[in-house]
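Researcher: Re-running this chain for the archive, since the previous output was lost when a drive failed. Same request as before.
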Amino acid sequence: VQLQAFGGGLVQAGGSLRLSCAASGRTYGSYGMGWFRQAPAKEREFVAAIGWGGDSRYYADSVKARFTASKDNAKNTVYLQMNSLKPEDTGVYYCAARLGAHTIYSRNWPYWGHGTLVTVSS
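Model: Regenerated structure tokens:
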């Protein structure tokens, strides 16, 4: 599975961004999709995940009620709508894929795309 994330940028606090992640290659099967982020000098952390069926979604407590994961199977693309952005949301955002149930541990996600930088100014 090849993944490519895009849509990052610079936004003021309180603003919104939508990230996209396009999947290609072996996209058949029950791949769950996840979003992680890594701030400078910090470890990569779980942000959100969505099952390939789209009926199960999981969020880190820090982004609940502000971020929404969604997907378009026809386009093999998943999205992360980020609203009410805060400076602490700044970081490189990565999309990832794995078979089976989601996990918050990045080491258990075998497929990764290149990150896209999100910068939230105060």
